[in-house]
Amino acid sequence: MVEVNTVRETAQTNNEVLNPMTAMGHEQLVFCQDQATGLKAIIAIHNTVLGPALGGTRMWKYATEAEALNDVLRLSRGMTYKAAISGLNLGGGKAVIIGDSRTEKTEASMRRFGKFVDSLSGKYITAEDVGMTTKDMEYIHMETNHVAGKPEAYGGGGDPSPVTAYGVYMGMKASAHQLWGNDSLEGKTVVVQGAGNVGRNLIGYLNQEKANVLVSDIFEDKLKQVTSEYKVKVIDPADVYDVPMDVYAPCALGATVNTDTLNRLKCSIIAGAANNQLADEKLHGEMVMRKGMVYAPDFLINAGGLINCYSEVHGSYNRKMALTQAENIYNTTLEILKLSQQKNIPSYQAANSLAEQRIEAIGKIKLSR
Ligand code: NAD
User: Fold this and answer.
1) Domains of the chain: which residue ranges?
2) Can you identify the CATH homologous superfamily of domain 25-156?
3) Beta bridge partner(s), residue 250
4) Of 251, 258, 311, 323, best ligand 1 pocket probe by most atoms within 8 Å of the beta carbon
5) What DSSP character marks residue 209?
6) 366 CB neighbour count, 10 Å cutoff
7) Residue burial 27-50, b: 16+ Cβ < 10 Å; e: rest
8) Which of the following is catalytic: 40, 94, 123, 222?
9) CATH number at 162-307+325-352
10) For the chain, how far is it from start to end, CA to CA, in angstroms?
11) Whose CA is nearest to atom 3 of ligand 1?
């Protein structure tokens, strides 16, 4: 057993928790552990100026606690910006559960996590993220009402991926409009990296538009599913950054837009669903701009999932309404790309500043009586 003194000394020496929280502007961090179920989780509430902090729970086998902490801090901050830029009355939060989602998840651990969420009395609303399913949301819902992404049978919004994909498609079309003066994707070559829930739905829209779709995935079953449903050409994951294309749509992992890939990519537009696509926001955001590529900020165009959750937590869920709201991602993307052009700043920076302006303005009206 670790001595309490050792824990205290480690935290004091490394300033591992409060310093990063201060640097990133977090309001609250909640560390959760339960010996009976083996649950170890961290809930991060970044900012609640616009409303309760909503963000999914990620279950991942983090190599270290520091890695889990870093992930939850970064992801929760991203949610603040995503909600703000999307015009939602939500703050930013996120949770991580440390463990293997395939082997270490039980009904009891999910429900215990639900109890921790409930202890925050609605300041944090959880939802699905990597390693979590709608079934898990059902278990969490047994212990708290502060959960979105419940199965449709329970009045929830179910899988948010179709709405996310629609938003990404809107962002891609707005980028095309900005670059080519016309938002048609007909005949354009789009590389979709990742044939998962969002990637597959996105391909559906691209097929309707008669775009030329190339797809890669690391799993055969995913490729089998997508090729049986849609007209696509499969490419090797290793070739994604080297094939000629008009649009690169990252729908798998983050940080794929980096110095190496930017020196290889021959696309005009980057627009996809993955979170944190720019490995280094400042460095690679500027590199993309200097290369004359249009980058549709990820946290803006992948907000469909959050919009879907918002519809669920504010009254009764309505998919049509969620899709209509996601359609507005087209207008917001255009506004940001124009601002980026006028001010000669990277698009991510234009999006960040609009989000910050909204938080500041609404924060002020909340203070006035
Ligand atoms: P998913 O797990 O269903 O799909 C991801 C796919 O990417 C999987 O099929 C996986 O095999 C594949 N993949 C992994 N590594 C790869 C690689 N190196 N090359 C090619 N393919 C690879 O996830 P999803 O729900 O479709 O989400 C996709 C991305 O969008 C994730 O980064 C997620 O965080 C983000 N996102 C999703 C939503 C949503 O509503 N689902 C909302 C916002 C953001």
Assistant:
1) 25-156, 162-307+325-352
2) Leucine Dehydrogenase, chain A, domain 1 (3.40.50.10860)
3) 193
4) 251
5) T
6) 10
7) bbbbebeeeebebbbbbbbbbbbb
8) 94
9) 3.40.50.720
10) 52
11) 196
Tell me the DSSP string of 289-317. HHTT-EE--HHHHTTHHHHHHHHHHSSS-
In this structure, are residues 271 and 301 in contact, taking their beta carbons and an 8 Å threshold? yes
Examine domains 25-156 and 162-307+325-352 and report if their fold is the same: yes
Residue 57, SS3 per DSSP: strand
For atom 12 of ligand 1, which residue has the closest CA?
194
Cα 270 from Cα 274, distance rounded (Å): 11
Look up residue 74 and give its two tokens. Answer: 């970064």
Tokens 């870093």 locate to 70
Handedness of CA 178, 180, 184, 187 (dihedral sign): negative
Active site residue 94: yes
In a structure prediction context, what are the per-residue pLDDT tens digits for the chain, which is 369 residues long?
Answer: 444 444 444 444 567 889 989 999 999 999 999 999 999 999 999 999 999 999 999 999 999 999 999 999 999 999 999 999 999 999 999 999 999 999 999 999 999 999 999 999 999 999 988 889 889 999 999 999 999 988 888 888 888 899 999 999 999 999 999 999 999 999 999 999 999 999 999 999 999 999 999 999 999 999 999 999 999 999 999 999 999 999 999 999 889 999 999 999 999 999 999 998 999 999 999 999 999 999 999 999 999 999 999 999 887 889 999 999 999 999 999 999 999 999 999 999 999 999 999 999 999 987 776
